[in-house]
Amino acid sequence: MKTKLMKNRYRDVTSIGHYGTGDVEFTLASELDFEPVKAFIQMAYNKVGG
Predict the structure, then answer these.
(1) Would you place residue 50 in the very low, low, confident or very high pLDDT band (cuts 50, 70, 90)?
(2) In this structure, are residues 10 and 23 in contact, taking their beta carbons and an 8 Å threshold?
(3) 1 lies in a domain?
(4) In this predicted structure, what is the pLDDT of residue 26?
(5) 11 φ/ψ angles, rounded to the nearest 5 degrees
(6) Which residues span the domain enclosing 31?
(7) pLDDT of amino acid 17
(8) How many separate domains does the chain show?
(9) Which long-range contacts (CB under 8 A, 24 or more apart) does 28-37 make?
(10) Within a domain: 41
(11) What share of the chain is helix, strand, coil (3-state, %, to 5)?
(12) Which residue from 5, 15, 30, 36 has the highest number of Cβ atoms inside 10 Å of its Cβ?
């Protein structure tokens, strides 16, 4: 059920022009939403900063 909820909390921003933020935008409504997207944030950081 958590996966279904998180599906509504991200969107593809490839063609919108979010400079420097990558191709995905996550919306976090609470601290509990952070854990499921933490791995994606780490991958993005390592790709850009690593």
Answers:
(1) low
(2) no
(3) no
(4) 85
(5) -150, 155
(6) 6-49
(7) 67
(8) 1
(9) 33/6, 33/9, 36/2, 36/3, 36/6, 37/6, 37/10
(10) yes
(11) 50, 10, 40
(12) 36
